[in-house]
């Protein structure tokens, strides 16, 4: 899928999610990002819509058989578990797609939890 086709698909999703002009479509590597109020909450890559997920949404999407976004770089597979492919039944239901998109936007704008720093115990000889 070419850049123009990807952008058209992103514009189509944006029109289903929010009123005209509420979502910006920006170039994003080989795809198109969906951005609202400066926050990227999703993107279209190779014909697939990916949304930002929180732990609850990730579990729901995984239960529907969705997979996280992944790509190959420097000969290895990189998996981005913050973004998951939107299940087909969600895409087919405009109301559900809007709700999932709102949840994705909320997950993007919610302050990140601070991760505790693990301490490393080192045994020194002697």
UniProtKB/TrEMBL annotation:
A Pfam match: TfoX_N
Listed name of the protein: TfoX/Sxy family transcriptional regulator of competence genes
UniProt superkingdom: Bacteria
SUPFAM superfamilies: YgaC/TfoX-N like
Segments forming domain TfoX N-terminal: 16-107
